Amino acid sequence: MPVRRFGGHRSLVKRSETPKLSYGFSKMNVSRSYRVFSANSSTACTELAKKITERLGVELGKSVVYQEANAETRVDVKESVRGQNIFIIQTIPRDVNTAIMELLIMAYALKTSCAKNIIGVIPYFPYSKQCKMRKRGSIVCKLLATMLAKAGLTHIITMDLHQKEIQGFFSFPVDNLRASPFLIQYIQEEIPDYRNAIIVAKSPSAAKRAQSYAERLRLGLAVLHGTAPSPESNMSDGLYSPPPTRSSAGHTGLELPCRRSCAPFPGIELPIMMAKEKPPITVVGDVGGRIAIIVDDIIDDVEEFVAAAEILKERGAYKIFIMATHGLLSAEAPRLIEESAIDEVVVTNTVPHEVQKLQCPKIKTVDVSMILAEAIRRIHNGESMAYLFRNIAVDD
What we know:
Layout: E1 3-6, E2 9-12, E3 34-38, H1 47-56, E4 63-67, E5 73-77, E6 85-89, H2 96-112, E7 117-122, H3 140-151, E8 155-159, E9 174-177, H4 180-190, E10 197-201, H5 207-217, E11 220-225, E12 282-284, E13 291-299, H6 303-314, E14 319-327, H7 333-338, E15 344-348, H8 354-359, E16 363-366, H9 369-381
Parallel strand pairs: 3-6, 6-7, 7-8, 8-9, 10-11, 10-13, 13-14, 14-15, 15-16
Antiparallel strand pairs: 1-2, 4-5, 11-12
Helix pairs in contact: 1-9, 2-3
């Protein structure tokens, strides 16, 4: 048994009681944290990210997003993200394609930096209008969903997708939040005589959304039907080329040889397909002496809204409001709204529109950073998201 001397006294110490060296990481309790980054190169687009981080009580992640001289996007992450949950907030300004590249490059940079989960917070999902096949086009929304998955995103938080079926394009979870509670609260608090209002659907396809608003506000419902004639013509693109007939003459194309003896290909007689023609805009419902509130998910080109406001004015509506989640307000939208019969346009801050507000005082903004921050907190803590969808109808 070894003998140790302490100040002239001897002490017996068993070998089994010999102290062991500790290197500081044998019993370390690692608490996984999360970071919130903004993927925008524009300072005007980081306002929503700052509001969200202030509500969460965290600092905005340190990163630099900028454009090279040749317009290439470069992303530099200035802090460690290894093993952490990362939330990328990306609002979509007018330059949509640049914003998409910023999001893809930042997600890939975080993926290669060994982030545990990468969640994209995209309040307005771009290209959501291109979610259906039209003629010889493509479903661009599906392409973008595939690109985001390849870049490294594992989850998406968005708001009021143009079509809810878009969630099926993704190979990872998608939380489609709703802005209707905030817009309904605005109606109740900012429109004093909203009990005398009527909810208006801009088209029959938007009737379900309008019905959800009307039922929760205990108001009536009106629907606009019809549209202005479209100048687009499809007669010269080959889409309506008739099948060959037996009586066709002057055919100079090559004829494929037939393996067996058969008669020439007979003419196909298809039923007469009547062209769809919409009538002029009419109002289904009584709006006389009422406040007309048009609800929609996106307001971009405002010609249809301006035309609808004129029809509603002619039918006796004395105030006209437009409620929409995403205020893109492109091109001459602020000027057209200012010169129209529309009294007020209410949108959320999912898309930056400060410049448009300076051009048109009729545009008002509702803040939805509260629900986005709560969604981030719940996802990080593994809590249920059902609380954010309480009293939300499927058609909302």
